[in-house]
Design goal:
The structure holds two protein chains of two kinds. Chain A is mainly α. Chain A is built from eight helices and no strands. Chain A is globular, with a radius of gyration of 17 Å. The mean pLDDT of chain A is 83. Chain B is an alpha+beta fold. Chain B folds into two domains: 47 residues, no CATH class; 135 residues, 3-Layer(aba) Sandwich (Protein Transport Mog1p, Chain A), CATH 3.40.1000. Chain B is built from eight helices and six strands. A six-stranded antiparallel sheet of chain B has the order 1-2-3-6-5-4, with helices on both faces. In chain B, β2 and β3 form a beta hairpin. In chain B, α1 packs across α2 and α2 packs across α6. The longest helix of chain B has 20 residues. Classes of the chains: A mainly alpha, B alpha+beta. Chains A and B meet through α1, α2, α4, α5 and α6 of A and α1, α3, α4 and α5 of B.
């Protein structure tokens, strides 16, 4: 299965557990297979991950009715006074367990852009396509997602 | 570019999502602005943290099989093979296999990703010639260029006037290349400009020169004394390699 790894990782980060991620991914591949003749683009991964995300939203509707995962995150002032070097150095050393917990606590709309950008290495244009948000919004959402993760990390550091 | 504008565009810069001109202008600002540089470093640090430490969830081996067996018995519309239905269970397995082939074919249309470092240095090279900002220190005196760069960057690259060999030194400037503050040392060969970038390597070991070319530019990079050097120019490859050898032996 092409891009199964990327599809599963995204679904797992969105659903938060393996069982549901498997269901979402299976549903996505079945849809992809069914609508394969509708695939016109040149980037199959973008197309497939778009379907994974749609499958996730449908799964959400069926299983978590009423819960708004993609609620708009509060607009925050988007600048931290940088402490040159020091914070950057420490951040690089955050352990994987802590990072996973901090990440899981972020709103889904932040998790998905971080995964698509930093793990899948997608362009803003491709991220816009997968998430259905305007291309011009991708940068600010990514920026807010990074800031939220950074703040969560700093708060975590201060409360040992 | 003013500070507020640059600050707002830092994510796009870090994500390599700006056009070459904006990238060049941002690079010039960042090389001189400690606040933007720190912010950029924080974005890069977060990226490193996510890429190296965020757990990647692997699909269980059973999932591919489970999907394969759940795929429809008939092949998809693009490859009509209705006769598979007659083979029942075996037909379904074959259709599943076929689905894999069709999906794989779709994937091979992906184009290879260009090397970001090469794209970056070519963009910097082109913009440095188009704009007015080819040099911060326009001088052929190596004893001026080298200390000027060393004082502003925590590195001491090879700077050597190679005029006798046909590659006169014309100056230096601060630049920002592939996530690193870099020294750009400017040489000429006849009417051509050679930009030689130097920045601290992630990998400290030495490495022999490697050649690349794109869009009519030649790019040669190597590592020496803990620094990565990248020479970019539109001079022909042999001349650029001769230049690199001269710098290397310097």
């Amino acid at each position: 299965m092409p891009h199964l790894g990327a599809a599963f990782n995204l679904a797992r980060w969105l659903t938060g557990n393996t069982t549901d991620a498997e269901d979402v991914v299976q549903d996505a591949y079945l849809r992809a297979f069914r609508y394969l003749d509708a695939f016109r683009g040149d980037n199959f991964r973008v197309w497939l991950l778009t379907i994974v995300r749609n499958s996730f939203l449908d799964w959400l509707k069926d299983n978590r009715s009423g819960r708004l995962v993609f609620q708009p995150a509060p607009v925050e002032s988007d600048w931290i006074d940088p402490t040159p070097g020091a914070e950057a150095m420490l951040l690089e050393r955050v352990d994987s367990e802590t990072l996973a917990i901090l990440m899981a606590r972020l709103p889904a709309e932040y998790r998905e852009v971080l995964i698509l950008r930093e793990i899948e290495d997608m362009s803003y244009k491709d991220i816009a396509e997968v998430t259905g948000i305007p291309a011009g919004t991708v940068m600010s959402r990514l920026s807010r997602a990074r800031l939220a993760l950074r703040k969560a990390w700093i708060a975590n550091e201060k409360t040992p | 570019m003013n500070h507020d504008r640059a600050k707002a565009l830092l994510p796009a810069y870090a994500d390599r999502q700006t056009g070459p001109i904006r990238r060049f202008l941002l690079g010039l600002h960042i090389a001189r602005c400690t606040s933007c540089l720190a912010e950029l470093e924080a974005i890069h640090a977060m990226r490193t943290a996510i890429r190296t430490n965020l757990p990647i969830h692997r699909a269980p081996p059973s999932l591919a099989m489970r999907i394969g067996s759940a795929l429809p018995r008939e092949a998809p519309p693009v490859v009509r093979r209705p006769s598979f239905a007659r083979f029942g269970w075996a037909g379904s397995a074959m259709a599943g296999g076929l689905a894999g082939v069709v999906l794989t074919l779709a994937v091979t249309r992906l184009t290879p990703r260009p090397d970001p470092l090469v794209a970056d240095v070519i963009a910097d090279h082109v913009r440095s010639m188009m704009g007015e900002h080819l040099m911060d220190v326009p001088t052929s005196d190596q004893h001026t260029v080298k200390p000027w760069l060393s004082a502003r960057l925590d590195l001491s690259p090879v700077v050597k006037d190679l005029a006798p060999e046909g590659y006169p030194l014309v100056g230096g400037r601060l630049d920002y290349v592939d996530g690193h503050r870099a020294a750009a040392i400017v040489y000429r060969r006849d009417k051509h400009v050679i930009n030689l970038f130097a920045f601290v390597s992630d990998d400290r070991s030495d490495a022999a020169p490697v050649r690349d070319s794109r869009d009519g530019f030649n790019v040669i990079r190597w590592r020496m004394g803990g620094l990565t050097y990248v020479a970019v120019s539109d001079v022909e490859a042999a001349q650029l390699m001769a230049f690199v050898r001269l710098v290397e032996s310097g």
